Amino acid sequence: MSIEVELKLSASADKIQQVKDWLKEAGCSEENSVELEWEQKILHNTYFDTKNHRLRETDIGLRIRKDGERYIQSVKSAGRVVGGLYQRNESEHDISKSELQLELVDEPYLMILLEEAEEEDGPFMPIFTTNFSRDVVTIDYNGAQVEVALDQGQINCMAEDMTDTSQELCEVELELKDGEASVLFELGKKLIEKFDLALDSESKAERGYRLCHSAPEYTKHLNLVNLTSKTSAEAAFESVAHKGLEHWQYHIKKIKRGPSIEAVLQLNRALMFMQTMYSVFAAVIPRHSLIHLRKDWREITQNFSKLFTIAEEINWLKNSKLYGFHYKELELLEEGLEQAFKKAHQRFVEYLMTPSYNLKLLRFSRWLYLKEWREAIGDSNADKIQKKEIYPYATKQLQHLLRDMRRHLSEKVTLSKQDYIEYLPKMSRTLDIGLFFGCLFDDRARREYRRGWADIVANIQLLQQLVYLEKALEAEGVEDPLIDDTETETLVVLKGMREEALARNPYWN
């Protein structure tokens, strides 16, 4: 079992040739001026799964590659994707012909997953192919050996009932063969700056499954960060950061494929999740080590904000209909918002392809992957945060939040609808912190306690929607007493919910 570390960038055919020409100069060290020798391969890859894609559910890839006269069987785990940097386990074996030989898989964990998938859902069958030419060369770049692969070809679905059965692929892959992973980031940065390439967190396998799978995509929500009581404070920060970045990358892929209100709302969730992370872990990761990163994410947020604002307003109008608030007078407003959303979506997708965005994402990925905050805090402090256990830190953070909520939401405090709405961001951050540390505590107690606060947030969001609806109707010269009645009723409900939530025993006690 080997660990594959590679960086992937999307390109176009003309960019591929430009990269190839540039590498003729960059690929030779000062001590070695020999011209690079490119090898061209024609690769035919067949991906296998069960009829209901059980391997896909467990993030396992099963592939046979034909490379010249060789047949190579590969099993890959999903691993972790940081920006466009992939790190994953990979098992490869040469086989005699283009037929699966699963008995060769010598990694017990992967073998168990393969056996379970076959037992539960039947035999493996070809699902899709990727057929492409690969120009490949190994270069010496800043003291490291990096394999550069330039791929051009197609992904083809093998299902007979699919109409859109092929998709072009054109990408640059940088795989670390020997040396420091930092070199991949340096080379990736250079390629983005010179050729406007974009980081690509979607693998060929992901694209193949998406091409061949006709079922609707489900919305992915943020969930618990996987921690244990023995996890160090530093490792907890890393896990939270990876969770936020993973959520961002997942929905960025959806946004690139087309306009989606839900994907935009989830991107905002990822941004809020990571902003909360910075403040919660300020005692672990000092603010001065985050200055440039926070500046980068602020610029990304600024480019995203208009798209999010429009998506949020459309979502409020659609949700209001679920509560029975239908108004013919607002049809033109909704239609205008839909048109504005399409334009804002297009502008944001264009921004996602710019060097400005991709360099920021690469910088954050490098900072996270190489743990560059350690440089800012020194060896002694780095040692401390690696030894500091997260459990007492988490308990302290949660207790601090509860004191703040008791101060603002006590039954003795009278709150208007505007008071609730202004406190909503703090409530949302509180729920996110519950996701940060929830795995450290009893799951049943955590769920019961969290449910009360989640219901409060949902009712405040309802107030927020009603206020927006009220203003939109006012602009059209329309009044609806039902909105006032619903707001009044919601305020009464919220008061009772506050009392009940604050009376519960916290799950961390």
Class derived from helix and strand content: alpha+beta
What pattern of helices and strands is seen along the backbone? EHEHEEEEHEEEHEHHHHHHHHHHH
The CATH superfamily label of the largest domain reads: Hypothetical Protein Pfu-838710-001
Parts with pLDDT < 50 across at least 5 consecutive residues: none
Q: What's the overall average pLDDT, rounded? A: 91
At CATH level 2, the architecture of the largest domain is: Beta Barrel
Q: Can you summarize the main beta sheet?
A: 8 strands, antiparallel, barrel
Number of helices: 15
Radius of gyration over C-alpha positions, nearest whole angstrom: 26 Å
Output the strand order for the largest sheet: 1-6-4-3-2-7-8-9
Number of strand elements: 10
- Tell me the CATH topology of the largest domain: Hypothetical Protein Pfu-838710-001
Offer a concise description of the structure.
One of its GO terms (molecular function) is inorganic triphosphate phosphatase activity. The protein is α+β, with helices and mostly antiparallel strands and 509 residues long. The protein has 15 helices and 10 strands.
Walk me through this protein's architecture.
Residues 2-215 form the CYTH domain. Residues 230-487 form the CHAD domain. It comes from Kangiella geojedonensis. This protein is an alpha+beta fold and 509 residues long. It folds into 3 domains: 2-217, Hypothetical Protein Pfu-838710-001; 225-388, no CATH class; 389-509. The chain contains 15 helices and 10 strands. The protein has helices at 13-26, 54-57, 108-121, 182-195, 204-212, 233-257, 261-280, 291-322, 331-352, 355-369, 373-387, 390-409, 417-437, 443-475, 481-503; strands at 2-10, 39-49, 60-67, 70-77, 80-82, 85-95, 125-141, 144-157, 166-178, 198-199. Strands 1-6-4-3-2-7-8-9 form an 8-stranded antiparallel β-barrel, surrounded by 4 helices. α4 (182-195) runs antiparallel to α10, α6 (233-257) packs antiparallel against α7 and α12 (390-409) runs antiparallel to α13. It is globular. 28% of the residues are buried.
